[in-house]
Amino acid sequence: MQFINKLTLYLTSGLFMLFAFSYCTCESKSDQSKTQQEIVDTAINDKQLVDDFEKSKFIFYSLPSPVETAMLIKRAGGGFDQDLLNEPGNASRYNSNLKMALNLGIYTANMSYASLFDQAQHTVNYMGTCRNLAGNLGILELIDEETIRRLEENMNNRDVVIDIISETFMNSNAYLTEQNRPAIAAMVLTGGWIEGLYIATSLTGGDIDNNSELVDRIVYQKLSLNTLLSLLETHKSDPDISYLIDRMESLQEYFNVMSIVSKSDIEAETNPEEKITIIRSQSEVEVTPEAFRELCNKVREIRSEFIS
Amino acid sequence: MNRFYVKIFFVIILLSGFSQIAASQCTGFARNIARPMLEPFRHDGNFNATYIEEGERAELYKTFFRGEEYRLVVTAVEALPDIRVRVFDENQHLLFDNANHEYTKVWDFVAETTSNIMVQVIVHDLEEESVKGGCLAILFGVKD
């Protein structure tokens, strides 16, 4: 009986803490309340929806991943430049969690970029570097011998290689989430994002007339930066994240002098047979050559800081 | 007093173990069940999965880039009831609602403009005595 009482005490305490944790999770998203209210207003007749707003919610911020960014660069006509990559040899100098996590993201971006351009040997080298960094970060299971073997066996099969990289990136986020280290996961994502932006801006040489499609993609990263800052804000009590917020806000100042002008509302056209929705609107970017050059310089400065 | 702290420590260890097991199961669910549903699109590599219960909801914020084609997969364990998925633009205009398409778990989007979108996921509340819960995954694929 005494055992049952103790068990009840433990379980009650446990449930209370679990509840408190869930509640805190929701409370930390209070900056979303305006958005919630606006959505409620537009659908006020939907009672089910209104009821649902009273319940718990989980928030995900999905950034363009290294694989997606590499695809965007390639589709915009960007080429491969080995000199832009962070040397694998630099990995030995990253000793803090911040530097290891940022550069795990940076090396994953390098690996994605190399693989999209069929640079097999670079891809394998970067996988090895990522493995070492992941081990130092305590996620040794991220890249095992089997992954390296699969990669080496399929070096000339781009589809398989990119699939392995995408799975590795997913696993890094997943393992860190499992270990309840979401701030480290956010640092990895930040490293990957800034590296993609660094590669893209470097390929333009800071010249707005060099590749208009790529310039367009770069300026629209202004939207992704907002998502990244929202993600970082959820972990701002961590001093390393606080530092990253500061760096990303300084970058945001350079994006803020560029405008994305919407010329029409977003329209959606759904085709139920093909299970597809087309999203369209008219918008254009307004950016001066000088502002673009300064943005490229700022990106290079931040990235240099991250890999130093 | 010391025994009190021992008990608290015991509870924390227990809870941390529980949440780790739940998170681990959701990783497996996302990898083995949700990810293959993206084919033939290429998974972007982002991991968005969590343990969720009836009546709860999730939101995902993402940028769609002009000229890209995306596949959205929102799926949960069978124990959970239907999942409602709605996609809004940043001005909260509804772009897609899977309630109009038999609560489908897979849908494609063609972005003819670059814009931020929000995927809102609501797990229906059956309002039964026992609350059902399980893993939910929200994944995106990009057409190569």
Total number of β-strand segments of chain A?
5
Number of domains of chain A: 1
**Percent range for helical residues of chain A?**
55-70%
Structural class of the helix and strand makeup of chain A?
Answer: mainly alpha
Strand order of the largest sheet of chain A: 2-5
How many angstroms separate the termini of chain B?
Answer: 62 Å
The CATH topology of chain B is given as: Jelly Rolls
- Rg over C-alpha atoms of chain A, rounded to the nearest angstrom: 22 Å
- The secondary structure category of chain B is alpha+beta
Second rung of CATH, namely the architecture of chain B: Sandwich
Radius of gyration of chain B: 18 Å
Structural description of this entry:
The complex is a heterodimer of chains A (308) and B (144). By secondary structure, chain A is mostly helical. Chain A has one domain (66-263, 271-307). Chain A has helices spanning 2-27, 33-42, 47-53, 66-75, 97-116, 120-136, 145-153, 158-178, 182-204, 212-219, 221-233, 239-256, 289-307, and strands spanning 57-62, 259-262, 267-271, 276-280, 283-286. Chain A has a two-stranded antiparallel sheet with strand order 2-5. A two-stranded antiparallel ribbon of chain A has the order 3-4. In chain A, α4 runs parallel beside α5 and α5 packs across α9 (182-204). With 144 residues, chain B is α+β, with helices and mostly antiparallel strands. Chain B is 23% helix and 41% strand. Chain B has one helix and nine strands; from the N terminus they run αβββββββββ. In chain B, strands 1, 2, 4, 7 and 9 form a five-stranded antiparallel β-sheet that branches. Chain B has a four-stranded antiparallel β-sheet with strand order 3-8-5-6, with no helix packed on it. In chain B, a hairpin with a 4-residue loop joins β5 and β6 (94-97). The interface between A and B is large, with 73 and 73 residues.
Describe this structure in a few short sentences.
The complex is a heterodimer of chains A (308) and B (144). Chain A has 13 helices and 5 strands. Chain A has 308 residues and is mainly alpha-helical.
